[in-house]
């Protein structure tokens, strides 16, 4: 991808593209049936998005992924964090 594209995304979102790419790489071989792994991903996404996640919200997201079979990706978790219902 064009380096200018990444700079543009960083400028608009305030999110470092290296952090997102590092997260994406770490997800490739992760065990998403493991609660500890899922919690780590949630915390990392929260940190990257600069959106704190309460223990209650973290628990809801974990249960949603494990029990409801929700897909685990940056967009899904970010949406759950931002919705905070």
TrEMBL record:
InterPro entries: SpoVIF. It comes from the Bacteria. It holds the Pfam family SpoVIF. This is Sporulation protein.
